[in-house]
Design brief:
Layout lengths: L20 E2 L16 E4 L1 E3 L25 E7 L26 E3 L6 E4 L2 E6 L5 E6 L13 H14 L2 H7 L2 E8 L2 E6 L7 H6 L6 H4 L18 E7 L3 E6 L19 E7 L2 H9 L5 E4 L2 H6 L4 H4 L3 E7 L6 E6 L9 H10 L2 H9 L4 E2 L17 H8 L22 H13 L2 E4 L2 E4 L7 E6 L2 H15 L4 E6 L2 H9 L5 E6 L8 H6 L18 H9 L6 H16 L4 E3 L1 E2 L2 E7 L2 E2 L15 E2 L7
Parallel strand pairs: 4-13, 20-21, 20-22
Antiparallel strand pairs: 1-3, 2-7, 3-6, 5-6, 7-8, 8-10, 9-10, 11-12, 12-13, 14-25, 15-25, 16-22, 16-23, 17-24, 18-19, 26-27
Helix pairs in contact: 1-2, 8-11, 10-16, 15-16
């Protein structure tokens, strides 16, 4: 996830880093091809190249190291919760559980993917990344004062390997040996099948207290606050309605450079609401003091209220440079009607993005043209250099457009676009009869369902369905609850679905889960489009083998072109800014990192002097 207090960006596991290199290393190597001696005593691990911060750094650049402690951060959440044990995949976890447990290493947000020592004070890493040794900080403690040891790390590994998230289980399953040499030193060795991101994923493992969980069932959901080690602990729980965390004033790691200036609020609370409209009204009344807004329409029309006018509340649009969510209406190419690329392109031509943006979003949003919108990973211009060399390997399996200018979403809704759509549909075997588009061979009408769970997308889908009717295509919009939506996604039981993928600046093996051939037939995968193109599969698989940042960008851009020119989806929109309103006694640092706002670096005034 993006940060302990950040809302809405998930990237630490499913968009994990590809490669870790030692601090100030001169070069990087592929697994199995490394040369040179192991790197020892490292304070940080970077995806590619050297970490930004050198040994002896005092604090991160995007924090105020003198930020006062005190005050309360009060947030709203939509939904409910029934579980405080986030080590398992069952249950609906309460918001904020991530910041009650420390990890071996901590991610920072002004680098694409870099980790610095937390529970692990330093690490030793093999030149080929086949093993890693964690040297634990002897000051590391759980909240009950019990020291963290290598036995706790081993126990955490074993439990999460058995009961944790599937991504963790896959990576942890590649470990062939765990060796404890003393209470503060533990070594993990990877076996066949390990790749560049394995060390990174292992290093963000939370350290669980063995002595606590041996007395409690780690396989079960619970509403009893578990023992933690992080900067906050659970203070109170109103099941399904509210959870409050309090700052641990004697937190063992509060003075580490990677933590200085962070975790400033004395309390953080999440109040749950069934409806976002009610949550907004609660914020306006002062019940919450910070709100992240995801709806540009609400931002433009519903933020004129007394507290904002008199200065008690302020709002900001904070520009960021992380990849935005890839939001789209996704074609299920497993369905015969969407198996033909020409049909998919025709339906993309009909999507009237300019009218929709102007009518529903005040023209504020940008049309998505890339798998990685708003980032350097998005394809640009014509492919050249390493990107072109990567693509040339798969020329026979790619449309010729891939080798031309970067993809730009069709200017849908125009007369020219409609004429082109009609031409493509006719070429693909569809004809217009009695005001209905029918298959020329079977005579069956072109009819499909658009499955949604986001009410905000419903108005867009209805407008799109109206435009499709002008071509004789019948599109039925169906809004379902989250449980039904997830079930149908897992079973690929849909024609077209509204969905979003999450990417970071360091895409990795999750790209195979998004676009790979094997994932197309794997229950629960995220290849919802059902892509089985050999070139896309090979390009997605190649991401995890990038040897440096330049190589990664080239491969990502090549994959971007192959997917976007496959017309596997109708891209929607993104903003490129974080919209946030907050009480005037809340403050933030002057520097915003590349990934955007990091709430754990914010603070409140007046400060509580008893820190």
């Amino acid at each position: 996830m993006r940060s302990r207090l950040h809302i809405g960006l998930v990237c630490a596991l499913l968009a994990a880093a590809l490669f870790c290199a030692p601090a100030h290393a001169a070069k990087t190597e592929k697994p199995g091809q490394g040369e040179g001696k192991p790197q020892k005593g490292l304070i940080g691990l970077a995806m590619h190249g050297a970490p930004k911060y050198a040994p002896g750094f005092q604090h991160l650049d995007y924090v105020n190291p003198d930020a006062p402690k005190g005050g309360a951060l009060k947030l709203a959440v939509i939904g409910s919760f029934d579980n405080l044990n986030d080590n398992i995949i069952t249950g609906n976890n309460a918001a904020g559980l991530d910041y009650i447990s420390d990890k071996l290493m901590q991610r920072v947000w002004d680098e694409p993917f870099t980790l610095y020592g937390l529970v692990a004070q330093t690490v030793d890493v093999a030149a080929d990344r086949s093993w890693i040794v964690y040297h634990l900080n002897p000051k590391a403690r759980f909240h009950d004062g019990t020291p963290m040891t290598a036995d706790d790390v081993k126990y955490s590994f074993e439990m999460l390997k058995k009961y944790g998230h599937p991504v963790r289980r896959r990576v942890y399953g590649l470990v062939t040996k765990v060796e404890i040499s003393d209470p503060h030193t533990i070594k993990f060795t990877f076996g066949p099948g390990y790749d560049h991101e394995c060390v990174m994923i292992l290093s963000i493992m939370p350290v669980l207290p063995e002595h606590y969980w041996k007395k409690h069932d780690i396989t079960k959901t619970t509403l009893v606050p578990p023992l933690g080690s992080g900067p906050y602990k659970i203070a109170s729980v109103d099941p399904g309605r509210k959870i409050t965390y309090e700052r641990v004033k004697d937190y063992w790691a509060k003075d580490l450079p990677v933590n200085r200036g962070l975790y400033n609020f004395d309390t953080i609370s999440y109040t749950y609401f069934r409806d976002d409209g009610i949550a907004l009204q609660s914020f306006k009344s002062g019940e919450e003091n910070l709100r992240r807004e995801s709806d540009i329409t609400k931002w433009k029309t519903q933020y004129d209220f007394p507290a904002l006018r008199d200065g008690a509340v302020k709002r900001e649009e904070i520009v960021h440079h992380r990849p935005e969510w890839l939001r789209a209406f996704v074609f299920n190419t497993r369905r015969p009607m969407f198996a033909d690329r020409r049909v998919r392109e025709a339906l993309a031509d009909i999507f009237n993005d300019r009218w929709i943006n102007k009518t529903f979003y005040f023209g504020e949003l940008k049309k998505i043209d890339s798998v990685y919108p708003n980032s350097e990973l998005a394809a640009r211009g014509k492919p050249e250099g390493e990107e072109l060399r990567v693509l040339e390997k798969y020329r026979d399996d790619l449309p010729p457009e891939v080798f031309g200018p970067a993809f730009v979403s069709p200017a849908g809704g125009t007369r020219a676009a409609k004429r082109e759509a009609i031409r493509l549909l006719k070429e693909a075997g569809w004809e217009y009869k009695d005001e209905t588009l029918v298959n020329a061979k079977t005579g069956l009408p072109f009819s499909f369902e658009i499955l949604l769970s986001d009410r905000g997308e419903e108005k867009v889908a209805l407008a799109y369905a109206r435009d499709l009717r002008s071509l004789g295509i019948s599109a039925h919009v169906r809004l379902v609850d989250n449980a039904q939506y997830v079930g149908r996604l897992d079973d690929f039981d849909f024609d077209m679905v509204g969905f979003h993928w999450v990417n970071s600046l360091s895409p990795g093996n999750e790209q195979v889960n998004y676009w790979g051939t094997a994932a197309a037939d794997t229950h629960g995968s995220r290849n919802y489009a059902g892509i089985t193109n050999p070139a896309v599969n090979a390009l997605a698989d190649s991401i995890a083998r990038a040897t440096d940042r330049e190589d990664l960008v080239a491969r990502a851009r090549a994959l971007d072109r192959a997917i976007m020119y496959g017309y596997y989806m109708i891209p929607l929109f993104y903003l490129g800014k974080d919209l946030v309103a907050y009480a005037s006694d809340i403050h933030r640092p002057s520097v915003t990192p590349v990934y955007g706002m990091v709430l754990e670096s914010w603070w409140a005034r007046p400060a509580n002097k008893n820190n």
